[in-house]
Write a structure and sequence with these properties.
Layout (H helix, E strand, L loop, with lengths): L9 H12 L1 H17 L1 H25 L5 H17 L6 H17 L8 H27 L4 H27 L2
Length: 178
Amino acid sequence: MAHGPVAGIGAFYSGLLHPLMVPAHLLALVMLGLLVGQAGMTAMRRGYAGFLPGLVLGLGLAVFDGYWPLEHPLLLLSASAGLVVALQWRLPAAALYTLAGAAAGLMIGIDSGPDGGTRGQRLGALLGTGLGAFACLLLVGDLAERTRRHWQRVLLRVLGSWGAAAALLVLALAELRP
């Protein structure tokens, strides 16, 4: 139901809420935001610089080709990012942040194709999705980057471990389905 319009609010606003209504998208955005925010401003700039073009490309593909389910790769990316946050690993190259951002953006964009509607409604929904996804990533990254006290850094690590665990549990349950 997350790929269809929300009754009464229009295509753009349905798209704006889309990243918050699809658990795999929200988890990927939160884990990527924690990852780049924890690593500092340089990583944030590179992560955002990779995420935005990836998202635009993915949304562009979704305009023409519709919905491609990429929930499992997004969950894998979320689990990986969550583990890096939980372990406080500093990735060796800033290019990794760019690649993680581009991969997440591309997958979220491709996986966001709305169901039905005219081409204009679909385009409005995808524009809203792009804005909502980028705003969510910016907000989480900014909050993570502002952590200064020890207990706040520990909280980031706990959130990363919970996100990784949630992603791995969903993947495991998906494999158990007949």
